[in-house]
Amino acid sequence: MTRPGPDLPPAGWVSGATKLGPTIKFGTNTLLRGSLIGRGIVEFCEGAPPVKNLISIAAPQAGVASIPLNAGGTTVRAIANSIMKAGAYSDYAQKRFAPTGYIKLPKNIKGYLKSCKFLPKLNNELPNDRNPAYKKRFSSLKNLVLIMNENDTTIRPKESSWFGFYEDGSTKKVLQPRETKLYMEDWIGLKKLDKAGRVKFIKVEGNHLQMSGAELLHYVVPYLQ
Hints:
The structure is a single chain. This protein is an alpha/beta fold. It is built from ten helices and six strands. The strands form two sheets. It has a four-stranded parallel sheet with strand order 1-2-3-6. The protein has a two-stranded antiparallel ribbon with strand order 4-5. Helix 2 packs across helix 7 (132-138). It is globular, with a radius of gyration of 17 Å.
């Protein structure tokens, strides 16, 4: 759960991505926070090989309101949440614990925008620092496939897999993706992609990352061509 350095975008990404060459098939199918990194390659890396399809399976595209632990039970999750909520946006946590880069506490949006090092940049949420290049690159995708598990207990809220999230100040009211400011003001080009019919909002049964072979064949394989 550790990662080096607080500032992932964009400087540390560009040289590696541009050396991959024009035929590399990367970032097309990514899970959980790996999907955010895949999207980061699309948005941040000028001159990187073009990405045609981005497939996101149960990923926290709009962030998470609690630490996504896949193991350890509710007691461990509760302890981790207490620790992280007390200092999730501290420089110490941001440098050392990967989930803090995409934890978005609805009741501390000011702290999130000020001190969270990764997701606010990725989602172009910073009011005075929105980068039109991120929107241009992201909206160049041919297909954006967003898959949400209907009974996901890891991604909170589960609608984050579709770019939905809690209303600011609330941990009860969930805004659907088309109700968010990110969508309505089109900070990253999600609305543009959607209006062009290039966003696939897909819901599958089961908990986090649970998909049947038939579902993978139907929803994922066609976009790997």
